[in-house]
Specification:
Elements: H1 2-12, H2 16-32, H3 39-58, H4 62-76, H5 88-102
Amino acid sequence: MELTESALAFISRDSYEKALLLLQKAHGVLDVVDITASKRDQMIAIEIFYNMAMCYQKLSQLEECALCLETCLDHLGSEFFSLKDKSIAMRLVKLKLETKIRM
């Protein structure tokens, strides 16, 4: 989380290269963790990939941007985020996030 928060500070200052380096380090940390076991970790992964996509877009690296967005959608489409037996509020949160990513 600290790496992600630091990356967001760089993003707010338009330092996308530095933010991307921190996000890539955060992604490396997630490689060691089994994110399928924790909804919180999955949400962190989605946030990391979404922010990486934004940095790639700002740096005009559109292929990498698209790959990160596809990864976000893959995580959202996983069985872990299934809409079955979820509250209406949780369904709306997922749909809002998916819409944001697809835009």
